[in-house]
Amino acid sequence: xxxxxxxxxxxxxxxxxxxxxxxxxxxxxxxxxxxxxxxxxxxxxxxxxxxxxxxxxxxxxxxxxxxx
Length: 68
Prior knowledge:
By secondary structure, this protein is an all-alpha fold. It has one domain (1-65). The chain is 91% helix and 0% strand.
């Protein structure tokens, strides 16, 4: 279980990085893409960060309980 959870944590952190890079690139470029999607990308980043933090907490908790 912990190995699967570890891979989910890595995937969630990758989603945070991807959404952050897309949001920053759109903000830097400006224009129509940023007007349409800038706020949406930052909301997605916050959602992905929340999920990643929950998964990290679950992973640390399960590892401390001896769950493999």
